[in-house]
Amino acid sequence: MNLQCTLQVFSGGTWQDAAVLELTGPVELGVAAATHLIYMPDYALAYWEQRDAAALSVTVPVDLSYYGNAHWPAFLTDLLPQGYGRIELLKQLAREEHAGPPAD
Known about the structure:
alpha+beta
């Protein structure tokens, strides 16, 4: 089973659907699971080839390319809570694991 999520970017004063990220590797691998990413066509046309705040990352310019990765993209792993904040969030979510791939 592949999992997908829509990634949004705050641009022009609003949150906009920008791309779809699909987890193509086993969920149990956490951030080491393979993914693929593609910008949504309307967003890509509106912000074509930008590498600024309109892009998800400077390494992922806005276009219609398919970005396959052997793991989660770095910009996404940077969003994961760390340390004490991670532990507290996992407690609130009633998750027992506090580290490692299952918690990702």
